[in-house]
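Researcher: Quick sanity check before group meeting.
Model: Go ahead. Protein one:
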Amino acid sequence: MGKDAGQTVGLPTMFSIVVGSIIGAGIFVLPVSLAPLGWNAAIGWIVSGSGALCLAFALAKLARGGHGIQAHIAEKFGAIPAFIAAWGFWCGAWTSGPLLALAASAALSRIDPQIDAFITPLAVAFVIILTAVNALGIRAAGRMQVLTTAIKIIPLFAVILIVLLHVGRGEPLQPMAASPISLDNIATAAALTLFAITGFENATAPVDKIGNAKRIVPLAMLLGTTFVALLYLLSSTSVSLLLSSSAVSSSPAPFADALASEWGETAVQAAAFCVAVSAFGCLNAGILACGELTYAMALKGDLPKLFAHTRKDGTPVYAQCLSAALGIGLIFLNSSRDTANLFTFIIRLALVGNLYLYLIGTAAALRSTKGAASRILVVVGVAFVLFAFYGAGLEANLWGLLLIATGLTVRTATRVTRSRRLAQAF
């Protein structure tokens, strides 16, 4: 089935998808790693935020065509590089889903400790529920995204508000960790914050279900990424100004502790709920992207034809179910202590997969970008991706190559099978 005009969304929904895709559960624990770096952490946020904006700008240049990033990469480099980008994007989306589902369950256990015994089944239930919501169509998924995005930003704004209240009352703030500002420390901070600001690419997945996609997709990506980068910089720094460096470093929930310092235990439970909603909303955006990516690759003949099937409203239910089944499988793997390390490794591998989308996408944007200023921004984006590959390490990059080889094998097998069936039909 093709595009259905009855199932399209506009800028508010797409802005929520971008913001909701970027803000997951990681930001709420990241201050633990950043606190010892002092003001280097703030500089790191600026560096990674600037890099993410350059990537968003480059991918937005491709999205302005209104046909999806994979189609535009294919125009510039051919079908195989376009598939590699889409495959890496897809792997990053469906493998991160289980982590988000588990994070949402774990956050709820902070409210009621009895939930701790049911984290795995609850995570599975979250995946099933959100897959069902997405099966109702992009409008239902979009409404869910707007709601969860509105809730998840509350604790981020709350810690900023507390800092302003302290300043207004003339109360002293905690000093930042006495870590010298250096290139090495800034690079460490930038590496830690790098993947916390990615996820904006999810806006490019449902391109055929967006009204006036040529305008809305780029605008949503740039506005959403800018908004989150600034919010992360201010909120993360605020936590370090409200709690001592040692308190942040030893805290399992630094945002909750910062809120508790002003408003007590009730604020901690409210923050835990918001963290759960944050992970839940990010999972919703990931499921939406997974379904659309699976559908797009199947439509191009890169995956079995079954996953190109849609309901009358254009919803790719079978594609959504595939990603959900894979995600649920990883959740059960993670429930065993023996395979917990495997799950962490798969997530790292998926992040490398996303870098292939960024690298090929920015390279394609560079070929079609005119104007010195625009080209400089795209070149910075390319350099930023190469820096990220370097930071990922040799082992992850070698396994990333295996990930791509697996995708190309699946693509070849699918196309050979289709060719044989066509030959038999004639």
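Researcher: Fine. The other one?
Model: Protein two, sequence then structure:
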Amino acid sequence: MKKTKHRCYILVLLTIVTIAGCASAKQVKAPSQHISSNQVLQSLRLTNRYFMDKWPDTGKPIYTNRWRPSNIWTRAVYYEGLMALYQIDPDQSYYNYAVDWGNKHKWGMRNGVETRNADDQACGQTYLDLYEIEPQPQRIKDIKANIDFIIQSGKVDDWTWIDAIQMGMPVFAKLGVINNDKTYFEYMYKMYHHSKVIEGGGLYNKADKLWWRDKDFVPPYQEPNGQDCYWSRGNGWVVAALVRVLDLIPQDEAHRAEYLQDYKDLMEALLPIQRADGFWNVSLHDADHFGGRETSGTALFVYGMAWGINKGILDEKTYRPVVEKAWIAMSNEAIHPSGFLGFMQGTGKEPKDGQPVSFSSMPDFEDYGLGCFLLGGTEVYKMLNK
């Protein structure tokens, strides 16, 4: 009888030890909640190397449902991110890769110098960046001719969807700086104001401090839960546009105060709707409508918040925990060992597009999401090195 009791005690003890051991093992495997600038840089290098290795020919057309030239907006956003990475990690291969891209397309745009489509103009952001590094006139000849054509037309209603604000607006800002010409700043504002206040009744909702993607989403359109539809990546594009423009224009630029207020209001609106896991949902006000982690919108919000902290515009005590939580979430949950980024919504304009979004799902284009991630990570790196 005593032996039986002893065996029972031993079994209980072994069970407790086993449970404790499992718990201990889980704790060891749990991702670190501490981030360092070196860890951030390694993540940026890994994800970027994956892409550069996959696309060694910078001029190779992109095929999804049809062929597209590789100077379209998706690839242009990637190069925005690459040029940001080059600032903190001046690897000559990055610069060469970007220059080769420009050369392969003869520093032109998909639909020529009379295109009005901001998606065509996005490549100009990198052309202008590369011109500032090496002022070779051919690098900006076509993009300047295009924007001058837009200004001479007197037409200001081209940006009918909020993505266009990010694709086109920073081009105007950079040309204004390079040419020391306020004409570009003034026309940029007219186009921004039209999208914000006039287009489809105004695409900016001052009450919620968020943007409807285009006139199709202005109320009475609603999400299934009765809330307005605010698409995560769409609002992320506005964040990126405002950050990039504020980074460029002079302190005394006539409309800077309005851009700055719109930026701060948008940052404030994002604070209470961050997911518990650190990401933001595809639909910002309806967590159940295609809910779940999404990397591109999250990365753009990180970009905006970290930039604001670095510039002393946002309160660090309020925003830094939000940024760190989001960066840890993306680092731990989205990056594959290969450098491929998961939880990336494909192209579209609303929550239902590009679904399903999962760790292993492949978006129709891999480039723009990586560009968003590189932009965000670069500012996080700067924040950690302040």
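Researcher: One line on it for the slide.
Model: Residues 1-32 have pLDDT under 50 and may be disordered.
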